[in-house]
Inverse folding.
């Protein structure tokens, strides 16, 4: 509150022209809410740093980009930006100087956001404490350090344009789509990316590996992704971080803690309604591995010994504590990265006031060999009605190396 | 010279069960709370995960979770004529250490005391006359009744998710529960644990003997449970690594799996670990606590000023800190005057071993609190007139573990090592069944805690000195209830049965229980109690003392449920009475 008050005072002194509609409570409150959906803080607030003062390094496949200061400080923040410039950053991926932003800033999604909502976010940002913090955003190696290169990238992978309602669909569906495809930028993780980091065409929301985790498909249909989840299951997951099937971990735990738990139930329901209507392509007909397969038998033995005490003998788990393995988008995902990550390193579940337990799974990487991890991962991906490609010891070995490198 | 920290509303010494409960309750009331814990931070997944929680060598033999005697210990003697010597390794009891305290490594047997236990002296005197009690027995009433405490027992049990079956629901007796228990306001949060073969067989024998056996109330949960704080616990897997161990399955009630996930994220709560409180500071009048002084793990001394000081350390160390801080009058056994260190009590346990030929008990299917019991020989549930003693205990078949290192007993005469021993272990592991009693320990004039005149700790402070031995009354009690246990166990059909009633003298080297009690007891009279009925110090009204420290004597039950209930009772008094009008809540 103190920061907000200081912010108000500072704005009134530094930007007298800003008096007017921008000081309207409803507008600022809407902007705060929308900024939460956009999870601006995830990148723009450094751990332990001041709100939106920048400085957090965003990991991309091409190197790190440091999120800039977006407080109203005129020198080092965005206080001097015009409203048009701010809109252009969200809508066109341009800085106030007209340079290209890097798409680590999810403008390919934010472009869907309507101008009045963008202005509400701006109004809220204007209330924050102006923090002097000069950020050198671009720490990419050559040639990625050339911002102009993004012009070509944009031409290939970016289409500016606000969300257009589909009049064939309900208002709720459209509200959900507006948020999922826009501010909530679900696709930033869940859309498959090509080698240049652009969205792979035709694979929207169908899952992608990043930051040592596999963000699973969140489409429905054909037994893939959220097919077994109801709208209520999705709402509960996003609101609390857990539901009868799954518990948010890794980057999704962060998304829940920082963002989705604060989204209103009505908006979450709209997002869930929209997501449930997103159909992925027909999955290949998969055949579960035979229980008699020696790898499955070895995996089962390890499972009974190491995993069943919590996840239970039939993989059902304990709702909201030990995730089910038999109806989990992550377990059956085409890429076993998340399963391997959790087995090797362990993980802690998201914490929200609605599900405060935040249980953690211990690491098993120190006591299971690559062959053993491969066997138990193969088992959980092919037991209890699951069917997914087996995991090899080589897969485990490379994930193990990758995770070790990430820790350093 | 201690460096002074910014003042806080409340400082709590020790972050176990009582510290966590008080911290939660008082942060809910909007106060800023700092908890100072001598031991390390402990968390399920990093400190006792399923990957290594079941390590008997590490946790049981090497005492991994416990206080190290080099950190702090006490001296012991049987009576005032002896010279006490320091305990250099733990034996009979296991002082806890670290966040969660004893709540991490308890067995989770979650008993309420009897209605008569809270008015013990009045009750026994009325029924048997003053002369029936041994002359030097100093038992007394608690200053509260079971009815006062019932809502708080309920709160603690619903925090934990305790598994059991009510025998007395609002005054209505129910078949299958404990017919002797005081009236419960509602059913247990979760149903009883499933009983293995041994308790089932013993319960059958008890029914044949005319008793009403019932499942022991358990903090190892029969099913998943989400408590009123929104924290979810899992179902027990019957692994049998409970007492001495942390639970890797989130299924044994502990501060870690019931309160801490919520408490830790409160902005008005702060915990300092690896910091040892040296003393409670008081102002020049000695009537007001000003905070505590502690030493961190770098040896730096800090002063934490606070408006309210809550002693929530383990029972022994609550008394130690009171004595070191000069709060209250130390007890003098020669005059019977003084209250700090007075009415120390313990627990009187015993067992009956049955060696069977035709039974397989699968002792590894177990939990800390699983079992079938009867309460007919507890407290004053039976007529003591003919027996010449008072007190009693629950008796039953409690299948707590079949762990590999120590579950290796044979009948008397079995060698303790070598080929014959191995043969005996192989023969008896599955077919030996031990039944137990859990008896009361009443207080006496010559049993007490004070400061040792000779030995000091690493900080140069005088060690706590314990003067304790079993008294004739307790040994008679143990003999009697062990015999009654054996009567029933015999009906299970063992080939050989061995009775092990508790015998004196007290052996400080052999594990019995960690149920040390008293030393700063609660009551109505400042001459015989250190704290009033709200656990508030008579001498320093902004100091409250929690834990089994407050028990005027110990009943024939495990103490934790009553410790938890007293914490909620005290928290309620602070929130609803003290904070509105800080000062003495009882005027003596």
């Amino acid at each position: 509150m103190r920061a907000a008050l200081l912010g108000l005072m500072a704005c009134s002194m530094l930007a007298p022209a800003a008096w007017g509609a921008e000081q309207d409570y409803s507008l600022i409150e809407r902007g705060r809410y929308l900024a939460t959906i956009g999870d601006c803080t995830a990148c723009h607030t450094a751990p332990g740093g001041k709100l939106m003062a920048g400085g957090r390094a965003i990991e991309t496949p091409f190197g790190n980009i440091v999120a800039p200061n977006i407080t109203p400080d005129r020198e080092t923040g965005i206080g001097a930006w015009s409203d048009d410039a701010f809109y252009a950053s969200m809508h066109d991926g341009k800085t106030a100087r007209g340079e290209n932003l890097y798409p680590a800033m999810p403008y390919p999604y934010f472009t869907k956001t309507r101008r009045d909502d963008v202005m509400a976010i701006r109004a809220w940002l204007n209330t924050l404490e102006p923090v002097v913090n000069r950020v050198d955003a671009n720490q990419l190696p050559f040639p990625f350090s050339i911002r102009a290169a993004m012009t070509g990238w944009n031409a290939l992978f970016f289409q500016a344009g606000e969300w257009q309602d589909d009049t064939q669909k309900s208002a709720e569906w459209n509200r959900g789509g507006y948020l999922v495809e826009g501010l909530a930028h679900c696709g930033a993780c869940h859309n498959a990316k090509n080698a240049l980091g652009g969205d792979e065409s035709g694979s929207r929301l169908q899952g992608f590996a990043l930051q040592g985790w596999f963000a699973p498909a969140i489409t429905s249909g054909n037994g893939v992704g959220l097919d077994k989840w109801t709208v209520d299951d999705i709402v509960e997951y996003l609101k609390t971080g857990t539901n009868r099937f799954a518990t948010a971990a890794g980057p999704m735990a962060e998304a829940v803690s920082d963002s989705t738990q604060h989204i209103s139930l009505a908006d979450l329901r709209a997002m869930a309604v929209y997501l449930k209507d997103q159909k992925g392509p027909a999955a290949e007909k998969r055949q579960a591995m035979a229980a008699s397969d020696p790898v499955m038998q070895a995996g089962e033995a390890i499972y009974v010994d190491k995993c069943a005490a919590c996840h239970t003998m039939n993989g059902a788990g304990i709702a909201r504590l030990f995730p089910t393995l038999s109806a989990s988008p992550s377990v059956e995902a085409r890429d076993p990265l998340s399963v391997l990550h959790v087995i090797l390193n362990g993980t802690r579940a998201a914490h929200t006031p609605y599900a405060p337990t935040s249980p953690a799974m211990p690491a098993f990487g120190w006591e299971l060999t690559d062959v053993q991890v491969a066997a138990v991962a193969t088992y959980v991906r092919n037991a209890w009605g699951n069917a997914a490609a087996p995991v090899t010891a080589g897969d485990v070995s490379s994930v193990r190396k990758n995770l070790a490198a990430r820790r350093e | 010279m201690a460096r002074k920290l910014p003042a806080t509303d409340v400082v709590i010494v020790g972050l176990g069960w009582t510290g966590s409960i008080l911290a939660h309750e008082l942060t809910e009331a909007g106060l800023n709370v700092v908890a100072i814990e001598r031991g390390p931070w402990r968390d399920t997944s990093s400190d006792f995960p399923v990957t290594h929680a079941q390590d008997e060598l590490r946790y049981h033999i090497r005492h991994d979770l416990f206080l190290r005697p080099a950190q702090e210990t006490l001296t012991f003697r049987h009576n005032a004529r002896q010279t006490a010597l320091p305990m250099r390794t733990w034996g009979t009891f296991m002082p806890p250490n670290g966040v969660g305290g004893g709540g991490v490594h308890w067995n989770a047997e979650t008993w309420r005391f009897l209605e008569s236990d809270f008015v013990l002296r009045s009750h026994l005197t009325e029924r048997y006359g003053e002369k029936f009690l041994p002359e030097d027995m100093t038992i007394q009433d608690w200053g509260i009744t079971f009815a006062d405490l019932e809502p708080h027992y309920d709160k603690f049990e619903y925090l934990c998710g305790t598994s059991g079956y009510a025998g007395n629901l609002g005054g209505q007796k129910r078949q299958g529960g404990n017919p002797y228990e005081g009236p419960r306001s509602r059913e247990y949060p979760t149903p009883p644990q499933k009983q293995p073969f041994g308790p089932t067989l013993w319960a059958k024998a008890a029914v044949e003997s005319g008793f009403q056996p019932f499942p022991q109330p358990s903090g190892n949960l029969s099913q998943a449970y989400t408590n009123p704080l929104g924290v979810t616990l899992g179902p027990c897997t019957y692994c049998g690594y409970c007492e001495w161990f942390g639970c890797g399955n989130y299924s044994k009630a502990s501060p870690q799996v019931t309160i801490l996930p919520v408490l830790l994220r409160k902005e008005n709560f702060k915990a300092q670990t690896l910091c040892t409180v040296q003393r409670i500071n008081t102002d020049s009048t000695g009537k007001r606590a000003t905070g505590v002084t502690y030493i961190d793990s770098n040896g730096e001394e800090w002063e934490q000023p606070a408006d309210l000081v809550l002693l929530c350390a383990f029972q022994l160390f609550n008394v130690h800190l009171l004595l070191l801080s000069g709060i209250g009058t130390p007890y003098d056994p020669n005059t019977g005057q003084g209250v700090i260190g007075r009415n120390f009590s313990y627990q009187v346990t015993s067992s009956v071993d049955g060696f069977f030929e035709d039974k397989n008990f699968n002792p590894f299917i177990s939990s800390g609190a699983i079992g079938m019991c009867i309460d007919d020989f507890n407290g004053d549930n039976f007529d003591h007139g003919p027996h010449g003693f008072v007190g009693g205990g629950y008796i039953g078949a409690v299948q707590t573990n079949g762990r590999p290192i120590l579950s290796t007993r044979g009948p008397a005469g079995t060698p303790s090592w070598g080929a014959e021993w191995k043969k005996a272990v192989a023969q008896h592991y599955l077919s030996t069944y031990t039944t137990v009693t859990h008896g009361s320990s009443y207080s006496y004039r010559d049993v007490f805690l004070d400061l040792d005149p000779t030995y000091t700790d690493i900080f140069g402070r005088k060690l706590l000195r314990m003067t304790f031995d079993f008294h004739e009354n307790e040994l008679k009690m143990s003999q009697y209830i062990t015999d009654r246990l054996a009567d029933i166990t015999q009906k299970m059909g063992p080939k050989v049965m061995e009775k092990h009633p508790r015998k004196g003298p007290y052996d400080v080297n052999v594990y019995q229980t960690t149920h040390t009690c008293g030393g700063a007891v609660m009551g109505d009279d400042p001459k015989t109690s250190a704290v009033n009925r709200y656990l508030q110090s008579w001498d320093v009204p902004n100091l409250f003392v929690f834990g089994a420290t407050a028990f005027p004597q110990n009943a024939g039950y495990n103490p934790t449920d009553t410790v938890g209930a007293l914490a909620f009772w005290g928290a309620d008094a602070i929130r609803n009475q003290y904070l509105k009008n800080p000062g003495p809540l009882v005027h003596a």
Summary: The two ends of chain B are 38 Å apart (CA to CA).
